[in-house]
Amino acid sequence: MPQDTNKDVAYIKEWMAKEPHLPTDFDDDLIIKFLHSCYYSLEKTKKCIDRFCTSRSQMVEVYTNRDPISPHMKTAFSITMVSTYKWGESEILIQKFTDPNMEKFVFYDFLRTHTLQGEYWIRRPFLADGHYIILDMSDYNLKMMSKINFMYLRDYIMFLLEGMPIRVKKIFAINAPYFYDKFYALIKPALPAEICDIIHFFPDHESLYTIIDRKCLPTEYGGEAQSIVEQNKEWNKAIIERRKIYLNENLWKADLKKKSKVNGDNTMSGSFRTLAID
Fold first, then answer.
1. What InterPro entries does its record include (predicted)?
2. Rounded to an integer, what distance in angstroms lies between the CA atom of residue 145 and that of residue 250?
3. 47 domain residue, yes or no
4. For the chain, which end, N or C, has fewer CB atoms within 10 Å of the first or last residue's CB respectively?
């Protein structure tokens, strides 16, 4: 971490205070996360924070009605698992869908679980040099395609890559089913080329061994790290313990009525934060 981080944090706090549409509930640790994810570029950090806050206000379908103990959210959490693992100075995040019969899957509720998991994730103290996202597609099926709003999913993916305080290096989709190309074809045309370049599909989890140190992977993938199932239980417990925070539907949201046209829209000129890519 650069020695003048405190000075940078103070600068960002002063900038946010002058922007009437931005929230006032950012603490220093969260600002440091954004600075780190943007390689301490003040201008990129400002754009990333604006994107983050503005999109949270615009994406009402997934940033409202998120009580983690409500029946619809408990159902959504029952079909998704998440876990993270350190790999040197980098961090691996694994997302796994677990509803092969598509009996419980509701698209927007599924994304709501991702928003809560993401918020818990970015509040953890580790400042990773890079993030490697693993999507386990073993339980994906063709029924899912009819239940997904693919344009919304595309926008959500862009928000995660441009607005979240993370440094995405690669996205690995493992255990890809035979129809994965049809699934991907509905999203790929709308994604910038530099994002497509970091997405890779593999037919199994063993393919990861040539890229990631095997011992850093969970036991389900032949590694030595904590089981996905066990760690996911810890995540769910932690999210419920923070329930009061997530019941605040204005958390980290921009006031769109106060956002001036001078600020432009919520995108980063349609480009990904290229410095986050090797």
1. CRAL-TRIO_dom, CRAL-TRIO_dom_sf, CRAL/TRIO_N_dom_sf
2. 31
3. no
4. C
Amino acid, res. 111: L
For the record, the structure tokens of 93 come out as: 């995040």
All residues at 6 or more sequence positions from 19 whose CB lies less than 8 Å from its CB, including other chains? 50, 263
| The amino acid at 247 | L
Query: What domain range includes position 93?
Result: 79-107+125-231
Is residue 22 one of the residues assigned to a domain?
Answer: no
- The enclosing H or E element of 228 equals helix 228-241
Tokens 């344009």 belong to 151
Can you say whether the dihedral through the CA atoms of 120, 125, 235, 100 is positive or negative? Answer: positive
CA pair distance 153, 237, nearest whole angstrom: 27
pLDDT, tens digit, 9 for 90 and up, residues 156-215: 999 999 999 999 999 999 999 999 999 899 899 888 899 999 999 999 999 999 999 999
Which amino acid, residue 231?
A: Q
For residue 196, give the CATH number of its domain: 3.40.525.10
Q: Coil, strand or helix: which one is 133?
A: strand
The distance of Cα 9 from the centroid of its chain, to the nearest Å, equals 23
Count of structural domains within the chain: 1
Residue 34 domain-assigned?
no
Residue type, position 88, single letter: G
Helix 42-58 and helix 150-163, axial crossing angle in degrees, nearest 10: 150
